[in-house]
Amino acid sequence: MVVGQTDIVSSFLPPFQGYGILLPIALLLIAAFWALFANLLPGKDRGASLVGLACSVLATLCYGFSVPGALLFGGRYFFTPDARFAAVIICLLAALWCLWTFGSGQNGGLGRTREAVAFAMLSAIGAVIAVAATDIIVIILALELATMPSYVLVGYRRYRIKGLEGAMKYFLLSVLTTLIMLYGASFLVGLSASTTFAGLASLSNNALTLIAVGMVVLGMFAKMSAAPFHWWAPDAYEGAESWALSFAAVVPKVAVTVVLARLIFIISQPVPQVAEMLMVMAIFSMIVGSFAALMQVNIRRMMAYSGVSSAGFILLVIAMMAMGLDGSLFALNAAILYVAAAAFATMGVLFISAHEGSMVADLNGLSERRPGAAWALAIIAVSMIGVPPTLGFFAKLNVFLITAAAQQYALLVFAVVMVVVSAFYYIRLIRASFFGESQKKTTVVTDALDAEKEGMADSQNLAAEIEATFTDADIEPATSYPAKTSYSPCAVAAIVLIVVVLMAAGIFHNPIMTFLAGS
Amino acid sequence: MGLKGIVLEVANIATAIACLPGSYSFDGMIFTNALAPVTSWVPQLNLWWVALAPLFPFFGFALLICLPRELRKTLRYVPIACLTMSFFIAVAAAIAIWPGGPVNEAFYTLQWTLGHIGAIPLTLSLAVDSLAVIMLLMVSIVGLCVQIYSLHYMKDDERIGWFYCIMSLFLAAMLGFVLSGNILLQFALWEIMGVCSYFLIGFWYRNKAPRQASQKAFLVTRAGDVGFFIALSAIFVAAQSFELSQIFATAASWSPFLLAVVCLGLIWAAIGKSAQFPMSIWLPDAMAGPTSGSALIHAATMVVAGVFLLLRMLPVLTLYPLAMNIILAVGVITALYGGLLACFQKELKRVLAFSTISQLGFLFAALGVGAGFVAAFHTITHAFFKALLFLAAGAIIAATGTKYMQEMGGLAKRMPVTFASFSIGAFALAGVVPLSGFFSKDEIFKALLHHGHDTGNYLAFAGIAIAGALTAFYVFKSWFTIFFGKPQTEGSANARDASTLETVPIAVLAVLAAVTGLAVIPLGVFLGYPAGWPPLYMVAISTGVMVFGASMGFLAYAYRTQLKTTFARPSYATASAAIAADTYLNALYQHVIIRPYFWLSYALWRLDVQILDSAVDGVTWLYQQFARLSYIFDVRVIDGAVNGISWIYVAKTRAAKWFDDHIIDGIVNGASWSFVLSSRLARIFDVRVIDGFVNGLGQLSVIIGGRLRTVQSGEVQWYQRLMLGAGIVLLAAFVIVFVLRGL
Amino acid sequence: MPEVGLVTALLFSATLFSVGLYGAISRKAAVSILMSLEIMLFAITLNLVALARFVPGAQPHAWFFIIFIMVLGAAEIAIGLSLVVALYRRARTSKVEDLRELKG
């Protein structure tokens, strides 16, 4: 591994290395401050988004042209290739989001978004620091910096009780698990007499260490909405507005996943039992995420459960990595690739939902109204299901390959079954947009439990729907929502870029993996 | 102990009585240096069980605080039982250490070392000496009376359980406070008492007055605690220990500066807690709390804590004459201030509040001349008759439905038992022979008279005498207004005596208020002080003062209507306004402390905003200049380039469109035909085989999904408990598996 | 009186942590829950202090951790309180059991 060069000045020019990799953080910080003072600066909301976009794009390029391997701050910041890849993904997601808000800003009908951009930039800063950190204190602080803005983004519009309620639940559960994580971390710091990952390798394998490690990863499970710690996610996602959620749901998740993967990579040597812990969590998450999403009629709630089931697959891969066989590094990279695929897909769905509405039924007739959006949605959904040649397919393929290589055949079959089950609800998105007809009906079904009040006949209907998946049958009645706002050019550009990423990263899979592995 | 001891004691008392005419000895200082050898007739006792006295009520508190409201209400008898145990412990302690000894010479000490600060041990300790035992008795008796009274007085309040809970904690803290031999422990318990008083005053927190009053009480006493804290630090530096025995042993060798800091800090703390002149503003407002609570904390115990602290630390304070003079001055001023304001109050409870302030001033004056036994004696008698007055006032206010004295009247016939008890308390307060208040007040007069004789300055004595007259004045004025004449409202006409639960405690306190004075000599023996009956000339002086005040009070009552019109005249307007505003003490604090504080924080905020704003303005101006330049660049250069590019683009598009129309479409048509064929085949397979499997899976999925959705109930704490439960189960399972594997 | 050892201190902080945990899952008023979370934070700090005192070599690291924990606590309380205030202004309630609209 190449340690940072002694010439400080040249490390700040491309290719960035050594301390130069801190340049993107400075850029994002500039964008964050611009957005905080946006009231006094020209452009107000759109200016803030534009500066955010510029800085995120520059940051992406900086990371793209950086050299991995810098070990900074006394062993506390290790810029490995997977950290570089994750940083690129995070900055790219932030850039897409800023692009979208630039297009839909104050004059585009979205209202005041300048603080949201500021929060997003700060969250991105926390995320890019966290993914490369190798010190418990830095990880925890950076993760908190990455996730705290998302509490605010969920409850961004203070006149919406649902948003505030979702934010409150997210906050309470997240803070509770953060404190449990801190408690476990305090034991780890005390017992290993150091805070860096290097010190963790010297822990002794006893019950206290196991409990401490368990508590630390419990906190991280909660933040990446793995079952049974996912309860905040459906309520928080449903309460948030789609545009704010499109950032708040993806960037923290990417950060936490990468951090968890790196942590488990280190800690599986002294404490191999984490592998079993992760397998159990993975099974729970896959079950809960796949089955509970079937009954959802709210897009954001469905995305929450989809996130839970992605967490399940990610945990499966990390569990395989923790078993310490050959190719653990490949497993680490596979986890990061999976979460990147899920992140782009979720963001795309939420962008479209921000324009169309909150319910799946609002997507009815999308192919007639806006065929471009319908096809984009189709590609995104297909990526989430895992159909070639999209990125999602390769991500899931990696998962299966790794599971097979570790000879966990029972888990492999289980995972495949879960993929099939989860396909159903993604297909509902496609079906609604292509085969659903917008109708005006008198009864408005606002959420799933109201549907339950109309009797269990609904669930029988759902069974019939799943049966009739490939036919042209009609589905549940639409709400009488018109499309919310028209698609601004930037929104279109953002969605198109997401689709391009998903397809291109899938087709040109090998260069991506080489970049990820650190050429 | 035994029969022989009892007999010996009776003989002691008889001898003392026989010495009645004239002979006495006055000794201002009754406390001995703790290093003096314990005389051989004091047996070595094992009194560890005295530590249980504060622990019983603490157990009552700990039990009640964990319970929900309903269960707390049913278990409100538990604190009463605990306090009864404490009372028995106090009685047993008194018998055990009979015939007592000098104060601060502990019969038994218990120390517990918590740890070390550097080389100095940090200990908690308990010291059982005669003063502590007397105070234990007093606090437990008054506490029991108040708690039994509250059973009926607060019976309609659904939060009565919380009342008993806090009162129990408070009693535990007070009992601990008097037993403590370590000043740090005393500070901790002092703070706990402050917190309990906050809760008790603000008991009915839904109304504005109790809320504000409780905050005010807490903040003012807290301001006094700063002094206590400074004194603690100085004590630690000077004596290298927090133990009272160590403090007394080394006090003579402290540097004058540290001695001054300690004394002034303790005085400041006592002024805050015992509502002396500058910091008395919280006590009248504290009447917004339940009367039985007030009877305990504002008559007998909490306000006396300041006095008790100074009493304990008297060996240190007497080493610094300026401190003693300050105490004396503050005491006299307070006595006059309280007495004066009490004469003009319209509400019964406020009269009692100012009366308490005034009596505490008396206590401070007694301490200021070094008369420790006198202060202790008056503390005890004041506790009894003031608690009696408060409880009786509560009964009267509840029975007549009004708190204003001018709306009462004629209650002597209507509430005879209450009338009798209140009268005993009132006369004791005024100092009528032979009630307890007479004896204790007389001792105070005597002490101050001798101080004046010694120093040649009778100003303090004059002040206290005037205060005594004022006491008698307002007591008798109120007594006449309430009990005689015609009832002024419906409520007063229908007033009846309270139930047994209320009258029995009042009667007990009345008996104690009546006879405690007669026990001055045994009390003196118990506390190691040669007390005697008051000499005749002192009796004459104090009775004269009392009669003068009483007659003025009667006249004020008799000519009340004329007085009302007199005082309504404009020339008295300023004085009336001053009285109404408690002589502007509250307004003074508002202007001197509260307003400047808010002004300062606002000024800092403005400063902050202005610095920020001017920085940002500068940046904005720079940016605008840059934007202008780049606009010019953009319009001239960039647009030219763009125009050129777009022409090329248009030509390219046309060619691409031709290509697309002719060549691509052909391929697509052929592909779609083959696609249609294959999909038809797939569909047949799909409908027959796959659907069967899928239907079954679908049904299963729906059922599981439905079940999982009901778990997500929407209540955040349910989620938290699920999460925690899952986490604990999983962690425990893993640890168990790990341990089993390791075996 | 024996010296307070590592186990005692760890047990003490564990007790405090459990008290805070119990408060966080059983209190109805949102502000009480925030207070319980603060108690948990203190327990963690105490844990670190105990470990720093008794485990050789843990000394500067645990102390740095404590400083940053305080920063974290301040930040999270700031967000929590603003959420509670915003919720109270909009929904007129600050009890978490009243937040039941989002479910399923």
Describe this structure as you would to a colleague.
The complex is a heterotrimer of chains A (519), B (743) and C (104). Chain A has 519 residues and is mostly helical. Chain A has helices at 23-36, 44-64, 81-103, 114-132, 136-154, 161-192, 197-200, 207-223, 232-239, 242-248, 251-267, 274-294, 299-322, 328-356, 366-369, 371-385, 391-405, 409-435, 448-453, 457-467, 489-507, 509-517; strands at residues 70-72, 77-79. In chain A, helix 13 (299-322) runs antiparallel to helix 14. In chain B, strands 1-2 form a two-stranded antiparallel sheet. Chain B has 743 residues and is mostly helical. Helix content of chain B is 76%, strand content 3%. Among the domains of chain B are: 338-370 and 384-579, no CATH class; 586-712, no CATH class; 717-743. Chain C is an all-alpha fold and 104 residues long. Chains in contact: A-B, A-C, B-C. Chains A and C meet through helix 5, helix 6, helix 9 and helix 19 of A and helix 1, helix 2 and helix 3 of C.
In short:
Chain B is mainly α. Chain B contains 29 helices and 2 strands.
How do the helices and strands follow one another from N- to C-terminus of chain C?
Answer: HHH
Q: Just name the CATH architecture of chain C.
A: Orthogonal Bundle
Distance between the termini of chain C: 56 Å
Number of helices of chain C: 3
Strand % of chain C is under 5%
Strand content of chain B: under 5%
* Helix percent band of chain C: over 70%
Largest interface in this structure: A-C, 48 and 46 residues
Average pLDDT of chain C, rounded to a whole number, is 89
Domains counted in the coordinates of chain C: how many? 1
